[in-house]
Amino acid sequence: MYTLSLMPSKPLSASARAYEQLRSEILDGSIAAGSTLYEVEQASRLGVSRTPVREAIGRLVAQGLVEPGGGRGSVVTDVSDQDVESLFEMRACLEAQAAQLAALRGKRSVFVDFAEEFRSAVPVLRSPSLDKDAVRDYYGLIRRFDEAINVAAANPYLVDAMEGLRTHVARVRRKAGSSPERLTASALEHALIASAIAGGDTALALHATHVHIHNSLEHFRQAFAGLGNPA
Amino acid sequence: MYTLSLMPSKPLSASARAYEQLRSEILDGSIAAGSTLYEVEQASRLGVSRTPVREAIGRLVAQGLVEPGGGRGSVVTDVSDQDVESLFEMRACLEAQAAQLAALRGKRSVFVDFAEEFRSAVPVLRSPSLDKDAVRDYYGLIRRFDEAINVAAANPYLVDAMEGLRTHVARVRRKAGSSPERLTASALEHALIASAIAGGDTALALHATHVHIHNSLEHFRQAFAGLGNPA
DNA sequence: GTGTTGCGCTATGTATACACTCAGCCTCAT
DNA sequence: ATGAGGCTGAGTGTATACATAGCGCAACAC
What we know:
The structure is a homodimer. Chain A is mainly α and about 230 residues long. Chain A has nine helices and three strands; from the N terminus they run αβααββαααααα. Chain A starts with 13 loop residues before the first helix and ends in a 7-residue tail after the last helix. At the A-B interface, α3, α4 and α7 of A face α3, α4 and α7 of B.
């Protein structure tokens, strides 16, 4: 019997592989912001021809991770301080709306459970022996929570936009790192949002999300302060 | 001396031409929703090779105008009643936010002028001898207004998202048609929004936009009612 | 010594050729 | 007559070949 989860259900196309790899390398910083991607170079590096690479780069450009370099390659975009401000302004708007919709339409029991999960994450994150796995688990929890909100909000346009934004948020997060203090605060904020949704309290869901995004932005502002980001 | 506006500054690439043409044909209905686009077929029709067509279709898929047909061609998406609801829910959120930001950051004189323009459009649109040119002019005015809000909101993520949405709104608009009543109401609503922005009244800009989108949706709901749209 | 012109290299844009998949149908065996 | 199996052709996915444009460098003229 095959181990199903490890057996790729589909032998991913070359374009898809090229896209996934370039994307993850940009997100985790293996390809630094400002680097120039040349089609031939990437094609040989990734072991595919130029065609899939072109397609992959096209998608990255559409996502805003890369921008056309005027004929000569495509350069990996950077995340400026101004971008972070704009990004979070937009996030506040969308995530708050999504939370509100989730409170209106979502399956309450799901969010009761999430509230509990977030609450029980707090002591773990606060503990001084906080290790990477715990942090990764916490990000996984957030990911599942976001997913649940996507489902509950039941608005494909909204979901698409939020997913697009999350890509950029991931870059910001990685640039800024995280502190145990911020993580515990985050968990408490999420717990409140989840409770609000679970209780069908649309206004509280909206406002708690707004507060959460605001605090998150404030954290990043402080993290970036003084390390001289380009405008 | 060249007539600058008619002189294409750049000899648009084949991909770009393919994209523009397919896009406009989908938007104006020349290519009906539900049609299947085959790469070879479109390539020969548009007089280019498959490569630019692939790229064009890729972009259309990313925009949601077309969806992959499981290996065999890509089908032009339709706009269901549910899509319209989701679309306007999202629009309300984004455009309201944009109007609020414009009220906060925009150059007031610009919006004073727009308010005046919208007010003076009312009698024209109300007139019984309303012709197509007047309607087109009015849509042009809206377009310029949207553009001004884009600039004033000064948030690239927000602008991108709204532009993406407007593509779909254009399809809805064309499907529903317009009535003189709705157009005059629309002009008045826009005038109010413009005034609110001009006056720096963020709350009013937000709420007036919300109301406007709501009324617009209501109009489309009525237009679609009874003509049996697919879910 | 400096400015200019032309050549060549490189990287993209486009076309085409090749490989592979899948659906539909036809045939043959039972 | 009917079902299974293979064939065929259309269509996509990928590779490669060809065209073209821009930049740098070098050489030559002044």
